[in-house]
Write a structure and sequence with these properties.
- By secondary structure, the protein is an alpha+beta fold.
- The protein has a single domain, classed as Sandwich (Jelly Rolls), CATH 2.60.120.620.
- It is 18% helix and 25% strand.
- It has a seven-stranded antiparallel beta sheet with strand order 1-12-7-14-4-3-2. A four-stranded antiparallel beta sheet has the order 5-13-8-11, with no helix packed on it.
- A hairpin with an 8-residue loop joins strand 9 and strand 10.
- The relative contact order is 0.23.
- The mean pLDDT is 95.
């Protein structure tokens, strides 16, 4: 199913069309139900990576242990009014779906995901974060080049991302791009939140350019595909200019006995461990 040696060489692995359509439909409907119930007049926090992560507010920080909706930047006009209907304005839902929404809890506990992690060397993987990403038609924002370890750090490094294509992903609607082997390069940035502080700060660690298209690979995959990638792998997704969404569900796992940094923005003092 997955080649550990190749994964360690490239920093990622693609398993095409692994998840059945029925399971994708279940989490898609659960996400739609969350959006339908969301009070968009109460919370209009935008998720964007174009601001150097300076826009992370209290609502974002508290989402570590909640189910919270974040808007696309282009879903709001200059006065803060909506430019799109609510269901076409949401960038993502995060970050405790696996804890608090039964459909996502069941999805994350699939044996096939546990098997993938065991095959690349995990002994006791636990799930720290989950996100349902919409990448809305025409306004789905770019996610700049980054490495997940900049935001989710353990000692030793043990975080991996599991990205599930809920819909077909291609260059036209903002598929993932990765730098094969790029996880062997240094960590370029770190986003740290000092204890007791409401916001974090992004620090530069290594003055190294991000990949260009010549160094990168577009992961065009059909719905149901799973992408596993290292926390140090540079990856990116472009703006969605098409008329079709590119929905995906992302999980981040770590070894249970790895030390989770107290400076990570995401902390789970109430929810604790979620074993896979």
């Amino acid at each position: 199913m997955i080649d550990r040696e190749r994964f360690e060489r490239d920093g990622f692995a693609v398993l095409p069309a692994l998840i059945p359509t029925t399971q994708l439909d279940t989490i898609r409907q659960a996400a739609q139900d969350i959006v339908a119930a969301f009070d968009i007049d109460r919370h209009r926090t935008v998720f964007s990576t174009a601001d150097g992560d300076s826009g992370r507010d209290r609502y974002f920080m508290e989402s570590a242990e909640n189910v919270s909706c974040f808007l696309e930047a282009d879903a709001l006009d200059d006065q803060g009014g909506l430019t799109k209907p609510k269901h076409l304005s949401i960038n993502k839902i995060g970050h405790a779906l696996h804890d608090l929404v039964p459909a996502f809890s069941a999805f994350c506990r699939q044996a096939v995901l546990r098997d993938i992690l065991k095959r690349v060397g995990y002994r006791a993987p636990v799930l720290w974060q989950s996100m349902y990403i919409f990448k809305q038609p025409q306004i789905g924002g770019e996610v700049r080049w980054h490495q997940d370890a900049s935001y989710l750090m353990t000692t030793p490094a043990s975080v991996s991302g599991i990205w599930v294509a809920v819909e077909d992903a291609h260059k036209g609607n903002g598929c993932l791009w990765v730098q094969p082997g790029g996880h062997h390069t240094p960590l370029r940035e770190i986003y740290e939140v000092a204890p007791g502080q409401p916001r974090g700060r992004l620090h530069t660690l290594a003055d190294m350019p991000w990949p260009t298209e010549n160094d990168a690979l577009a992961l065009e995959v059909p719905a149901g595909s799973v992408v596993l990638f290292s926390d140090h792998l540079p990856h990116y997704s472009s703006h969605n200019h098409s008329d079709r969404s590119r929905q995906a569900f992302t999980m981040h796992v770590a070894e249970r006995d790895a030390v989770w940094s107290g400076n990570n923005w995401l902390q789970r003092p109430t929810l604790g461990y979620f074993p896979i």
